Amino acid sequence: MELGVIWRKRACAVARVLLMGLAAGACHDPEPTLGVTRVRSTPDGPELHKGPEERFSMAGRGGGGAQGGERDIASFFRWEVPDGWETRPAQPLRLINLAAGEVECYVSQVSGNQSSSNLNRWRGQMGAEPLSEAAIEELLVTELFGRPAYRMDVDGAYQGMSGTSWPDARMLTVYADFPAFALTVKMIGPREAVLAQAAAFAQFTASLGFNVGDGAEGQDEHAGHDHGDEPHPTGAAGTGAPSSENLAWDEPPGWQRGAPKTMRYVTYVPAGQPEVECYITLLQGDGGGLMANLNRWVRQIGNPSLSEGDVRALPRIELLGSEVALLESYGMDGGVLGTMIPLRGEVMFIKMIGPETGLRAERENFIAFCGSLRNG
Amino acid sequence: MSTNKNKSGGPPSVFGRIMDTASSFGTTCIILIFLMVLTFRGTYAQEELGLVAAQQKYFDSLFWMVEVLSLRIPMPGAFLLLVLLAINLICGGILRIRRTGATLGILITHFGMLFLLAAGLVSYRYSDRGFVQFYPGEIEDTYTSFHLAEIVLSEPIGDGAVREHLISDDGFSSMRPGDQATVADAELPFELIIDRYYPNCRPQRDAEGELRLDGRPFEDMASGNISGMIVTLQVSGQEAQHGVLWTGERHPWTVDVNGEPWTIGLRRRVYDLPWAVRLEKFTKEEHPGVSMPRVFASDVTRLQGDVEQGFHIAMNEPMRYEGYMLSQNNWGPQHRPDGRLWSMLEVSRNPSDQWPKYACYVIAVGLFLHMLRKLRLHVKRQTKARTA
Fold this sequence. Notes:
The structure holds two protein chains of two kinds.
Chain A: H1 3-26, E1 33-34, E2 38-42, H2 52-55, H3 67-75, E3 77-78, E4 86-88, E5 96-100, E6 103-111, H4 115-125, H5 133-137, E7 140-144, E8 147-159, E9 165-177, E10 181-190, H6 191-196, H7 198-207, E11 209-210, E12 247-248, E13 255-257, E14 266-270, E15 277-284, H8 290-300, H9 308-312, E16 316-319, E17 322-325, E18 327-331, E19 334-342, E20 346-354, H10 356-372, E21 374-375
Antiparallel strand pairs in A: 3-11, 4-5, 5-6, 6-10, 7-8, 8-9, 9-10, 12-21, 13-14, 14-15, 15-20, 16-17, 18-19, 19-20
Chain B: H1 14-23, H2 25-49, H3 51-59, E1 63-68, E2 71-76, H4 78-95, H5 104-126, E3 128-134, E4 139-158, E5 161-168, E6 181-183, E7 190-198, E8 201-205, E9 211-215, E10 228-235, E11 241-246, E12 253-257, E13 260-286, E14 293-304, E15 307-314, E16 319-321, E17 324-332, E18 342-349, H6 355-387
Helix pairs in contact in B: 1-4, 2-3, 2-4, 4-5, 5-6
């Protein structure tokens, strides 16, 4: 038999074997039944009856941080309660919780950069079909907290996951993305009742804002030397704790001041690293504590929480004459370098966020920036 | 060697044709070409996919897909190719080869190669790999898998002890969205339904306060993937109980099974060591002026009953005992080196750990014998030519 024919027959036979294997490998059982693969005994059984917060170290997960962090976030807001509405106690993820009869209206924080999945999930609760990405983008028609926001009105049979249900309901949603999270205002209830509150909903949404000092807008003109007209808290004067009075620092080489942003004392962007931002935030009170805030930061980038041992083991850097913990963490959503220090009556956070490569490149500048902070 | 006709001189039988293909040198060449392409492709893919994902896609698989001009074409994976190579070796290199003194060396070499392939199969099917992490003075008698997971159904058996019924992730790690699996066994007084499996996720509460899993894209770095699942427990005569399991959880989910508190959890696979290991000392020294480690070693004691046996484990100096190998893998905390240090030892159990070495000896003997024969023939021919 000619050599070419032999080779062709061999190749065909090999191809048949490969195709048979492919067919076998392509079989997928969508409903398998699994049995126990092995059994072992251990004298130390697990701890029983642990709730989700303990099981998953979830205190505040999905709500923007530990309880302390949530209280701080809520204290950032200002709003006007429409006539006839009542204020209800905040719940773990309802930062502002209001009601008008059967109708519920609340402000909540959710994971950032997931507008499509969040909006479609809520449509699913109303029995409505999901929208395409293009259709979602067409909902970007309003504003919330001064940012572009989606507005979605859905009619349907509402089935909430906690058991609440209305066969003829309406849901109004306004949704705005921020760099690391999203804020949403939702109103849900029987359709006619929600329609009756539509104007009040618009009034409430428009009244929402951030609670910052009047001097924040003028910081650009003061080159980082003071807060402008922001009142300084009293109470801890004379304790020897550092303060934010006449705060000064040395700008790291190549760092450029960024545009003023609400809740930020100052923002910097390193030259050549447009996705990296370093900023200082000042909060009244204790800010929720070191552990709560560090864990909020690591969870924002998708990493598991730190244990107390992990926090104690963090390296220390110098800040305003004290040694403070430096968090450096990288995850699937970028990374964070951050630290905090209690001041007189308030707490200062210094944070740098962005992609890992940029953060690593600016790490030493960040540490030098923190070390250069001083009063006056 | 091929036959075109059967013994009676008629057309070759089906079995004959199969044997011809299975034993042909052409088949060997085709398989080796595919293996060469796969080796290059799989090695480069480690950079984009990560080590574990590249290994699973190219080297542990029967097939993988390559996209050419929008067409997805199946290509054979290393597992399939090595099975075919073994069949080709057996048929062509053992069964059909002329068995004479002239081919003795080749036969021995082929046996050595088959032994090497067998070592790979045993390692793939029966080996375990994990880690032990402890501080000096601590004792461990289990090790934890780096990447594999298991569902743990803990049955109380009194005095705080539990019997763990384990379901390995071989059955559920390939579940796709929309798939549903059922855990059912004669040993279990209930059924556990896996409603949804996530290869990488984080638990979240939504605005209604309900617990859910937030699915994430699969990470290149395998250690960044934390799997989870939504499950429903169905105990006869009781209402269904719904829960969330997550590999990163600190505690399992407690459920009521006919009045008894069982727990259901998801964790990285835990294996028992046949003895315990105590870390006596961890030593880390760096070269002066740099952070490159010079010495990086653990002194451990193996504990079994009243027997205590000391071992020194350092880089390239593992501890080998009863089929287990413990090697220095890592240490920490690395950002606070002045603090108390823990040591991480990699533990691997591989019944065929030494087989590749023995296979190489066999191959070397076979090649040496064949070379000797060829040398003898060459010298004989040279001598004949000179005397002619």
